[in-house]
Amino acid sequence: MAAPMSGGGRLCRLAWRRRAGALHSGAQPAALGREPGKVAETQSGVAPWRAVVGLEVHAQINSNSKIFSGSQVQFTAPPNSLVSFFDASLPGTLPVLNRRCVEAAVMTGLALSCSINKKSLFDRKHYFYADLPAGYQITQQRLPIAVNGNLSYTLYVGAKQSQMVTKNVRIKQIQLEQDSGKSLHNDARSQTFIDLNRAGVGLMEVVMEPDMCCGEEAAAAVRELQLILQTLGSSQAIMAEGQLRVDANVSVRHPGEPYGVRTEVKNINSLRFLARAVDYEIQRQIEELENGGTILNETRAFDYKLGCTIPMRDKEGKQDYRFMPEPNLPPLILYDAKSLPANIDDQQVVNIDWIQERLPDLPSVKRARLVEQYGILPEHSFTLLNEDGLMELFEDVVRKTQMNPKKVIGWVISELLGHLKQYDLTVKESPVNSVSLADLLNLLERGVISSSAAKQVLEELWKGEGKTPLQIVKEKRLELIQNQRELDQICQAVMEGHQEEVMEIKAGNKKVLNKLIGLVQRATQRRADPILVKQILEKKLSQ
Amino acid sequence: MAKPDVNPAIQDGGAHGFLSPAAGFRPGVVSRVSTALKEGQVSPTELCQRCLSLIKATKFLNAYITVTEDTALRQAEESEKRYRRGQSLGDLDGIPVAVKDNFSTTGIETTCASNMLKGYIPPYSATVVQKLLDQGAVLIGKTNLDEFAMGSGSTDGIFGPVRNPWSYSKQYREKCGQNSHLENEDSSWLITGGSSGGSAAAVSSFTCFAALGSDTGGSTRNPAAHCGVVGLKPTYGLVSRHGLIPLVNSMDVPGILTRCVDDAATVLGVLAGHDPKDSTTVQDPFNPFKLPSVIDVSKLCIGIPKEYHIPGLSSETLAVWSKAADLFENAGARVIEVSLPHTCYSIVCYHVLCTAEVASNMARFDGLEYGHRSNMDKSTESMYAATRREGFNDVVRGRILSGNYFLLKQNYEKYFIKAQKVRRLIANDFVNVFSSGVDVLLTPTTLRDAVPYVEFIKEDNRTRSAQDDIFTQAANMSGLPAVSIPTALSEKGLPIGLQFVGRAFQELQLLTVAKWFEKQAKFPILQLQEMLDHADALSHQKISLSS
Predict the structure, then answer these.
(1) For the Asn/Gln amidotransferase domain, which residue ranges apply (chain A) (predicted)?
(2) Which of A16, A184, A417, B405 has its CB 3.0 to 4.6 Å from that of A193, i.e. a possible disulfide?
(3) Can B219 be counted among the known catalytic residues?
């Protein structure tokens, strides 16, 4: 059964996107303003439509060589430069399973709370396509390496998207399989070029049960999966590079009714497009059905330029994949501490327990730790994990400063990440590293500079000229004036120059004090500690 | 003790008469040649040249698709240098061998006797080929076969049928009452059996000392029986299939064709063992063995499967089989009738599994990466279709179609799964028999002796294969080792072979029994001299075959 939609406002927004959206001026709303939940509610008197969304996620395994051959795996390489005889399906070549790929799948299975099958099998899935040299793909149809898992993900719900809700999607299975090559069509010359560099790269297909009900949920689930894969290192999972590819199975129905006819949406290469594609498809199906139409069980592609899904022509005919056991690969047997035979070469076996013991902290554990250890808000923990390298930077800065982590997080998220978003940079590419940020925050914490001066320094650091914060502070003369007498004199001069204001204050209009403070700040080029200035002025005024 | 007159296959005064039989202990042909090479009685180059000359003289047999004369001579030269330095690589150093043209050979065209792979030059060698070369063997050529090894006659390849050397033997000509004029032979020449007919004919006609075949349903043993040579199908998983262009991956095994059992053991010793490139080879180390010269069979139990006594079995083959059983009994062995109850389902089950894997394995031949590509360029799909129509013969296309039918979603359970279950039952039949104390099974290899080509082609390939694989394919279904031993001549003067099936990975026991039997059988030598005289009197004189 698919999980029913959560009651109340269905304006769910993603934790990961919320931060990004908040910081990114002009960020697109994720769901095109066509929230499926909202549409459903407009059907007065009729039971609302409920959408059912399941996902098949293909993650390229992060390994040096391909799953069944010794060819290197590399995203950027000249076409057809990473092709072994096996990858080109030369007759007589045989697959040899890459141990690293098995370990990656076991790791991923464990991280998703799957049961790992101690025995799994490989099958051939047949279809003719120019970038599938053997005429079949080796996959795990009958008995995959991992089954029955679970993935928790979080999204924001409620009118102000202030409420975090944790949801679950069941993982049906994880199967190991080969990637295909790439076809490059030149329609003008009606030619197709084939690049087999990708042919035979290891994939984990993660099949999620139809437990989701909108694009936001689908995108949030995939984002969490992406983080888990990246944490494990089992896949780099970069969607833009095709390392993570999502097919969405979408159907709609009225509550209590059986599943509707589903469509499969392919060619989705970003999380934003995933949310849009799913929501568009839900909307399309509802409209189709309400207009008396029917839904075809078909494959559709998402056209990100048009923002809609369109039927895929080359998959029109119903395929019979003629599955067959792969006779060249014996059953894949995995061991645990109990079943591990004595005197066996460690290199010849994969030990599930051994992998389990070495699993790194998963994102959910890391987030909980961040909240507990640093006292930061849960939503901040999401932001720290969502940006690659941001958590490490934050923790580094905390280690290097005396500043309260609760204050550090503000600088890291609002200032540093804000800057990065503005210029579309990753944490890795940031001109401001943890050392300079820590130096800066230490200057602030020690009272050497004001927080507004600190922001100025950050602006300078952003230019990436290699100067330290202290150098910038000195050059720009941004230190707070520590000399009480000097400040006294400046305050005195301001008061003397603004007798009217002084009179007003003395007459009881305390608000005018702020104007005097501002004047002092201007006179000191903001190098005065405003609290100190206020104290001095108040003292002088009361004299 | 072996008797001097049990000569495995060296023709007296014939092709290799320079190797006169020594008295007393007689190791295999290969080791005798190896000794001659070591002692300098003959050089690898001379040996190679003699074989090349013989290949030319027997060209009409059509045993070879490619004769690798230049590389062979180069390899022989290398071998010669090693012998001169006293650094022979082993028993196979300098020995001319042939390889069926469905094994990949670096830089040497590998066709599978199909238009699809005509002109295809692989960039790598099959593991078994490489192992032969690494031992110094001289690769003399690639042998003919049925297209993609699909057949039991070696008649269905694009290079034409292979002719059985026995068609031209003194023995056959005399028995047939025909004169040996070649003008008349077109109607009477015999098939070799198949699909490794080229390899069997090559070994049988003395153009090489050993040849690789492949054995999926009997493709090594069947032509071995018809051509009067030893044909060994090792246990599945003992010998690497890497580089063998597959027919049925779960049944294919590289086969070994030699003139005697000792040679088969020698070659097996070189080929067997784990190959990291073939995950279905067993990890256990393989220890090459030499067969004992004194063999006692009195403690053995020989099983005679009653289900192999079938109507189509020729009376003379049956008689040879019975006589063989008697031989064992007389030598003190226990000979018992055993039952393999699922035998009758084997051939149809084999057909389903075989075609299903064929359909899958042949999917890669789409004209894109290698091999034939049609000029049709309307669309990728039409190019595929035309390429496959032009590239494959009717037999291959027929098997692809039926295989795909069995794999269709609605048929998979009904055919493929059922066939797999039956396969398990068939394998269990053997397990049960062997666990009941039987050491080796003795059966016929084929129903009868070789038939003339004109007779053979009266039936289609499928019918022929179903008949001809009847005794052999069960060993492939169960993965067991089996060997065909030339046993006697039929009334027509043609070879009849018997098959021994052993326990999995018990090749030593199987071949020991086979060697004992070989000695008792005293199978006669193919007398080809007359044929050669007629075939090419001129070239024959030039090559001076006798020493």
Answers:
(1) 392-541
(2) A184
(3) yes
Q: Say if CB A138 and CB A177 are below 8 A apart.
A: yes
Containing domain of residue A413, as a range? 363-476
pLDDT band for position A64 (cuts 50, 70, 90): very high
Element (H, E) at A171: strand A163-178
What percent of chain A is predicted at pLDDT more than 90? 64
- State the residue for tokens 């026995």: B166
Task: Return d(Cα A226, Cα B404) in angstroms, integer.
Answer: 38
* Residue B542 placed within a domain: no
Rounded distance between C-alpha atoms, residue B441 and residue B509, angstroms: 12
For residue B111, give the DSSP letter: -
| CB within 8 Å: B360 and A126 | yes
Per DSSP, A269 falls in state -
Task: Tell whether B414 lies on the interface with A, counting CB pairs under 8 A.
Answer: no
pLDDT digits (tens, 9 = 90+) for B432-460: 999 999 999 999 999 999 999 999 999 88
Q: Are strands B253-258 and B210-215 parallel, antiparallel or unpaired?
A: antiparallel
Pick from B138, B391, B385, B151: nearest CA to B247 = B151
pLDDT, tens only, B223-243:
999 999 999 999 999 999 999
**Residues linked to residue A155 through DSSP beta bridges, in sequence order:** A14, A165
Give dist(CA B280, CA A163) in Å, integer: 56
Residues A505 and A513: their CA atoms lie apart, in Å, by 7
Please state, in angstroms and rounded to a whole number, the distance separating the CA atoms of residues A353 and A32.
46
Q: Domain for residue B401, yes or no?
A: no
Inside any domain, residue A27 = no
DSSP string, B487-527: EEE-TTS-EEEEEEE--TT-HHHHHHHHHHHHHHHTPPPP-
- Taking only the tens place, the pLDDT of each residue in A192-205 is 899 999 999 999 99
pLDDT of residue B186: 62
Nearest to B123 among A85, A96, A135 (CB): A85
Please check whether residues A104 and A242 belong to one and the same domain.
yes
Count of the separate structural domains present in chain B: 1
Q: Are B500 and B517 in contact (CB under 8 A)?
A: yes
Residues B477 and B251: beta-carbon distance below 8 Å:
yes
Quote the minimal CA–CA distance from B527 to chain A in Å. Answer: 37
Report pLDDT digits (tens) over A145-185: 999 999 999 998 877 677 889 999 999 999 999 999 999 98
* Residues A245, A225 contacting (CB under 8 angstroms): no
Please indicate if any CB of chain B lies within 8 Å of the CB of A86.
no
Helix (H, G, I), strand (E, B) or coil at B401: helix
Q: What backbone torsions phi and psi does residue A238 show, to the nearest 5 degrees?
A: -85, 115
In this predicted complex, what is the ipTM?
0.92
If asked whether residues A454 and A502 sit together in one domain, one would say no
Instruction: Mutation target for A interface from B236, B247, B407, B420: give the one with most A CBs within 10 A.
Output: B407
Q: Range of B205's domain?
A: 43-164+191-347+416-523
CA torsion angle A74 A80 A82 A88 (round to 10) = 130
Which range is least confidently modeled, A119-128, A310-319, B6-15, B325-334? B6-15
B250 flagged as catalytic: no
Task: Give the total number of structural domains in chain A.
Answer: 3
Report the pLDDT value the prediction gives residue A537, as an integer from 0 to 100.
87
Question: Which residue in A286, A302, A282 sits closest to A294, CA to CA?
Answer: A286
Q: Which amino acid is at B390?
A: E
- The Cβ of residue B23 has, within 10 Å, a number of other Cβ atoms equal to 7
What angle, 0 to 180 degrees and rounded to 10, lies between the N-to-C axes of helices B394-407 and B461-468?
A: 70
B244 touches chain A (CB under 8 A): yes
Question: E strands within A67-145?
Answer: 115-116, 119-120, 123-126, 136-139
> Rounded CA gap, A99 and A107, in Å?
12
Within a domain: A355: no
